[in-house]
User: What shape does this take?
Amino acid sequence: MLHTLMQSPFKANISLMINMLKKSDDFLALQDGVLISLNSNIFLKSIIFSNAGLYVLKEDVYARGLDKNISSKFQLIDYIHFVSLTIKNKKQMNW
Assistant: This one.
């Protein structure tokens, strides 16, 4: 399943989302959701512990000037890779 976070992690039920993540799932942060991938984010350890594939949309990271603060556990991807994730994951959940 592909989980996408499009809003600030402080406006979503992140605890529920992290509990639902499975090792076989992919997680993509985009728009204001990219904040979850910051090294200083309080949710970072929990989402890394989920062992899901962790991705963050490069364009949204750069638009917010956060490129030097993103955890190395997240893979920066472009829109083409985003489309590949949606093809790979037939089921999706937006947070």
Remarks:
- The beta strands are 2-5, 26-29, 53-57, 75-77, 92-94.
- The longest helix spans residues 79-88.
- The two ends are 13 Å apart (CA to CA).
